[in-house]
Amino acid sequence: MRLPSLSRSWRFSDRVKLKMIRIASGRPPADILKILHYRREFFGEPFTAWVHQVLRGPSEWSIGERELMATFVSNLNECRFCAGSHGAIVDATLGPELTAAVLADWRTAPLRAPLRAAFALLETLTLQPGEVGPELVEAAYEHGVTEQGVRDVVHVCAIFCTINRIADAVDFAIPDDKGFQGDAYQLLKRGYAIS
Questions:
Q1: Which of 91, 106, 113, 114 is deepest in the core (most CB within 10 A)?
Q2: Cβ proximity of 115 and 122 under 8 Å
Q3: What is the pLDDT of residues 25-72, one digit of tens each?
Q4: Closest Cα partner for 41 from 11, 6, 21, 5?
Q5: What 3-state DSSP class applies to 16?
């Protein structure tokens, strides 16, 4: 359901910013920007600070690998907006062949051992969180994932299980490929923090 308040209830400075985005890009701002700027101090600022730290902060996972994790979780959750948005970033950083291979079957995709172990953990966390136990985490450690690497995987999963549901609940518009590519360029250039 599209929420009318997401089209009109922003602070003046946020309205100006969203209008500038529209002018610069030649298209309306993505719905994610609208939701992040709506009562931004309540949700947008803390959420994007978390996302920026997890997806762009120091990690044993590259930016492309973390974006691939985001795409994978979003695909499992059947969130077309987030899978497309983050998939476009993976396409730009790691190549569209890897994105397609992982989404088709991560078990046979050309992944290094620690990343394959991360996908095993992500799949269970996303689809069967009650089944996650020490043995799954130990298996990740055995394949070379560090404790911090496991934490990063858990954070990526938590972020995207949250935003996937928001995107679908408020019916985010799905951009075309050119729109996804333009947004990917901006996210690679600027990151995620809005404050």
A1: 91
A2: no
A3: 677 777 777 777 677 788 888 999 999 999 999 999 999 999 999 999
A4: 11
A5: helix
What single-letter amino acid sits at 142? E
User: Residues 3, 89, 179, CA angle at the centre, nearest 5°?
Assistant: 50
CB 159 within 8 A of CB 63: no
The range of the structural domain enclosing residue 134 comes to: 4-190
The CATH number of the domain holding residue 30 is 1.20.1290.10
The count of structural domains within the chain is: 1
Kindly give the interhelix angle for 147-169 and 44-56, rounded to the nearest 10 degrees: 140
Helices (H), 77-194: 80-93, 96-105, 113-127, 134-142, 147-169, 177-190
Does residue 195 lie within any of the structural domains? no
pTM: 0.85
